[in-house]
Amino acid sequence: MANTVPPQLFEDGYLAAKEVLAGRATAAAVRARLIEHFGLAARTVDAYWQCHIALIKGTKFRHTLQADGWRFNLAKIAEMGPVALMAALETFMEHIVYLKGKTRGNEPGLHRVHDEFVRAIQTSAVFNVAGTELDGQVAEAMAESAEIRSARLQQAPTKPEQQLVLSRVFRRNPYVIAEVLLRAAGICESCRLPAPFTRADGRPYLEVHHLIRLADGGADTVSNAIAVCPNCHRERHFGAGYSEAGDGILPEDVGVD
Fold it and tell me: Can the keyword Nuclease be found in this entry's annotation (predicted)?
């Protein structure tokens, strides 16, 4: 297909997608127009206008198109800013994973396009300190008078600004999580109460917490982890009885050997 799709379809497909998004044209109308102009199959032309809508809306995309087509549409979305581009890249990666599962064979080229735009947005991102800053700002706001808080609320915008952040995350072992959850059998290993609710698939909802934090050099092992309810999990991160360096509690203290 890469040899039969003219680059002009990238532009025309993008413009058609904008028409559909704005309600100025129907899917049937733009499909018929593109088929007539390019002489290609409906599924082919659909790929080159529906991809832009999928990137904008974050919806699943199951067509196949060449890497340059994705590059063209991502470049257009990049003009909308780094937040819009990051959301589009998440949708794009979901599509790449889908193709890999279907053994379509063109995902290596798509990975290169994805990496290209990830590098482009890194210069626009900041490190993720927003949570720490917000906690301090909340404490300051609570210390102010009711009159000052009321005035600030009246002046503040109701829709928060979006900001792209860089975060460091650990790639945790799913087998450690599975073993800890199975060991807990739906009972919080801190407060000993049943999980507060069940997931859509029927599993009790508990969160796996590392007794010695991964950030502090703790091991991602079953012996260094417990399954806790959301309330106990938050307490272990923010409660007065727990230090920032970790729980200070060994696995044997909570009966999870």
Answer: yes
